[in-house]
Amino acid sequence: MPLLSRLQAFSFNTESWFSTSSFIFVKNLLLLINFLSMLAGLILIGAGGYINTNSAEDIVGLSGSIAVASIVIGCIVTIISFLGCFGAANEKGVLLKTYFALLIILVILEISVGAAAYAKRDEMNTSIDIAWHNAAQGPNNSTIVGIEKLVWINELACSATILDDFKYNFDCCGFYNTTDAVVTPDCVLKTPNSTGCHDQLTATLKGSLSTIGAAGLALGLVELIGLIFSVVLFRKIASKETAQSNLLNEAWRINRTKVQYGYQNYQYV
Question: What family does this belong to (predicted)?
Answer without folding.
Answer: Belongs to the tetraspanin (TM4SF) family.
